[in-house]
Automatic annotation (TrEMBL):
<dbReference type="InterPro" id="IPR038725">
    <property type="entry name" value="YdaG_split_barrel_FMN-bd"/>
</dbReference>
<feature type="domain" description="General stress protein FMN-binding split barrel">
    <location>
        <begin position="8"/>
        <end position="151"/>
    </location>
</feature>
<dbReference type="Pfam" id="PF16242">
    <property type="entry name" value="Pyrid_ox_like"/>
</dbReference>
<dbReference type="InterPro" id="IPR012349">
    <property type="entry name" value="Split_barrel_FMN-bd"/>
</dbReference>
<dbReference type="InterPro" id="IPR052917">
    <property type="entry name" value="Stress-Dev_Protein"/>
</dbReference>
<protein>
    <submittedName>
        <fullName>General stress protein</fullName>
    </submittedName>
</protein>
Amino acid sequence: MNSTNKDYQELNQLLKDIKFAMITFITEEGHLHSIPMTTQNSEFNGIVWFLGSKKSELVKNIPYNPQVNLGYSNPSNNDYVSINGIAENVVDPVILDEIWSPTYEAFFEHGKSDPDIQLIRVACNGAQYWKGAGTLTTLYKLAKASVTGDSEELGTTKNITL
């Protein structure tokens, strides 16, 4: 199933208040490893940007194993998004200018010109999301199911090819 404008709008709605992703990547030894990273996009468009360190395990492993998964969660709404894609280490001063914030000076001693800065671009292949019914609704449905023995629909799930 190919994505539609409606799919992008739905993903934007789910991701709008979530700034952090758990990026899962493949290590040199072939193991899966996850680290938290700040998403740099203000809107999801099929490409997700991150700012990392050239010394990091993630950046070092991308050229050898570019497959990644981005995990986002908003437990207060019971919303979860998993996006798979291909990561690439990129040099692009225009993008760096767009996403740079003085906050990053705490991580990069020489500011925007620090030679350790690495832009990471993830071209997304697909996504799956679980949209919860909200905490109170979910609690009600769980309580009802435990009393009646009936199963309850606790939200929606959708797979999207990007």
